[in-house]
Each structure stands twice: as structure tokens, then as C-alpha cells.
Specification:
- The protein is of the alpha/beta class.
- It folds into two domains: 2-19 and 212-309, Aspartate Aminotransferase, domain 1; 28-209, Type I PLP-dependent aspartate aminotransferase-like (Major domain) (Aspartate Aminotransferase, domain 2, 3-Layer(aba) Sandwich), CATH 3.40.640.
- The chain has helices at residues 29-37, 44-51, 60-68, 92-99, 128-132, 195-209, 212-230, 260-269, 293-309, and strands spanning 2-4, 7-9, 54-57, 78-83, 103-105, 112-118, 138-141, 161-165, 176-180, 236-237, 250-253, 275-276, 282-285.
- It has a seven-stranded mixed β-sheet with strand order 3-9-8-7-6-4-5, sandwiched between helices. Strands 10-11-13-12 form a four-stranded antiparallel β-sheet. Strands 1-2 form a two-stranded antiparallel ribbon.
- The protein is globular, with a radius of gyration of 20 Å.
- It starts with a strand and ends with a helix.
- The model has no long low-confidence stretch (mean pLDDT 94).
Length: 311
């Protein structure tokens, strides 16, 4: 272990900090415990404003599974996955759920029975009108784009269903929302459900949703801070976010000389969740609303240390 830019690098195993894509950390156990025990009312109007007609699930994955189960898909059918960037990268969390029902593809074919639109990393798919022209059922995946929308403010309202993953934006340990836009499906119930868990989750969400404006502002500020501090390494913003889009991560394009898989391993060994945007020279780290400037400086210093040590 050693100091670099006033931060300790490679500390002992049980002295490693924890920075995750989710804003949850042990510090929120106390708050969530108090909310669970309290008589805090669920703000149904606020939840309806964001999620319309909705069901609670243990995760975004289980919400997606419930949506897929409504279409009577056979093993030879295909789900056509569209993404904001067109990159070949698709989370295994998504593809594994689809594979429980049928196949998936990155292009349309005669076997296409459903379109899944993935609004990636806080950006939104801007050609939804073109998607709807195919006259196929549509599911929107907003797991990483809860607070983002298009210029028409209709993102999340185009498909039959919209998927949200709550730990991506709130300091909670579980939770998914299935937004049901098509009235034909409003009779469905969760595949599994625990009323106490659902009610507790809704307490959490309505409590944290009240701070949505601050969440948006702080994530945007943190995204700018990362870029300001990493520009000297020729790391550049991968996305140009509109005023209506809120970053889910700090995603940067990097020089081809950087070993991104090595950087990923190094950061994770030092307590920073990170990954490669495979198919590109691009990389991402947390950007959530509870990171302070010192936290960002710490993550930046780790990246600089790795780059300096691996020239």
C-alpha cells in the first residue's frame, strides 16, 4: 500500500472503502430501518406521477420477467433489443431473463415478436416513433434512466410496459417497478409477492422520490466533476446528456492504450464498482448523488495511479 494524491492505494482487505453504482451504503441502514418501522404514509400521488399504474417486484429483473410472461412467447420466438448507442453490449441481467422465454437478437427478423428498448445509462432512445411503426409490442427498459425523458416527455409511456430498477437511483437494497401503460394488462399481479416487502418498498420510494430534483442536479454536477478531473488523461464524456437526461454512471471514452480490463480489476480491488462498456474503448464508474467531491477525487486518483503505473 502507498499514498497517492493524499489517498491510500491498495489498503488492507478490511480497510477497503465501498463505492457502488447504487447509492446504497451501510449508512442508509439506519434511515431505512426507521422508515420501515414508522407510520410514514406512502405518497400515492407522487408514485402515480412517476410510475402511473404499477406493480412492485423484488428487482427490475423480476419485473421484466413478469412483462415477458404476458406475451405467450415460444422458445423459437425472438425479442429484438434496441439500445440508445447501438453498441453490442447488453447486460446479462436482461438477456438471461429473455432466455427463460425465448431467444433475443440485435436485429429484426421474421421471428421477432417483441421489441425491448433499452434506454442506456441515463440516455433515452430518441426514435421511438420509428419503433412504433413496426406494430410490435414494446417494453421499455429504464432501469438506468429513471429520471430521463425525451423532448416530448413521453419516455416510459411508449410501450406496453416500462421497467425500473430502484437501487440504481435510491439508497435501497432491492426493488423493481413494472409500469403498466397498456390497460389490457392491468389485471396482472406479481409472479411472487410479499405484501410487507411491497409496502415497505413503497415507503422508501415515496420518501426518496421527494428529493428527485436534488438527485438530478447532483448527478449532473458529479458527471461534470469527473470530466473536469479526468480530461488531462484524455478521458472524455461518452454521452452528451440533454437537459432532460440524468446520468446513471460516469461513462467515459478512453485512449486505446489504457488496459480497461486491468483498470476494472484495480478499481474493484480498491473498492470502486466499475466496468468496461464492451465493444468500445469506454469505461464507467459511479456518479450517484451521495458522492462528494472528495469521493470523486479519490476515484480519479485511483485511475491516475493505475494509468501512471501502467504506461
Amino acid at each position: 500500500m502507498e499514498f497517492f494524491n493524499h489517498f491510500l492505494v491498495n489498503p488492507e482487505r478490511f480497510r477497503i472503502p465501498q463505492y457502488t453504482i447504487s447509492p446504497f451504503s451501510h449508512e442508509w441502514i439506519k434511515t431505512n430501518y426507521a422508515l420501515s418501522k414508522s407510520d410514514q404514509p406512502v405518497n400515492k400521488d407522487l408514485l402515480s406521477h412517476y410510475f402511473g399504474h404499477y406493480l412492485c417486484f423484488e428487482s427490475g429483473r423480476s419485473a421484466l420477467s413478469c412483462a415477458l410472461a404476458q406475451y405467450g412467447l415460444s422458445t423459437d420466438d425472438e425479442v429484438w433489443i434496441l439500445t440508445t448507442t447501438g453498441n453490442r453490449y447488453i447486460s446479462g441481467c436482461v438477456t438471461r431473463e429473455i432466455e427463460k422465454y425465448c431467444k433475443w437478437s440485435r436485429q429484426q427478423s421474421e421471428k421477432t415478436k417483441l421489441i425491448l428498448v433499452n434506454h442506456e445509462f441515463g440516455t433515452v432512445y430518441r426514435a421511438m416513433d420509428e419503433v412504433l411503426k413496426f406494430n410490435l409490442p414494446v417494453i421499455e427498459d429504464m432501469a438506468m434512466s429513471m429520471f430521463s425523458t425525451d423532448d416530448n416527455r413521453q419516455t416510459g409511456n411508449y410501450g406496453d410496459f416500462t421497467i425500473f430498477s430502484l437501487p440504481k437511483f435510491f439508497p435501497v437494497q432491492w426493488g423493481g417497478i413494472l409500469k403498466i401503460n397498456n390497460p389490457s394488462f392491468r389485471h396482472i399481479q406479481p409472479i411472487t409477492g410479499n405484501p410487507f416487502l411491497s409496502q415497505t418498498l413503497l415507503k422508501y420510494v415515496s420518501f426518496y422520490l421527494a428529493d428527485a430534483a436534488s438527485i438530478n442536479q447532483l448527478r449532473k454536477q458529479n458527471n461534470i466533476l469527473f470530466q473536469n478531473h479526468l480530461g488531462c488523461l484524455d478521458f472524455k464524456n461518452r454521452f452528451t446528456y440533454s437537459e432532460n437526461e440524468t446520468p446513471a454512471v460516469y461513462m467515459c471514452s478512453t485512449p486505446s492504450s489504457v488496459n480497461l480490463d486491468g483498470l476494472k480489476v484495480f478499481l474493484q480491488q480498491n473498492g470502486v464498482e466499475s466496468s468496461v462498456f464492451y465493444g468500445e474503448n469506454a469505461f464507467f464508474v459511479p456518479v450517484h448523488q451521495y458522492l462528494r467531491e472528495e469521493d470523486i477525487l479519490f476515484i480519479v486518483s485511483l485511475i491516475k495511479y493505475y494509468c501512471n503505473d501502467n504506461k
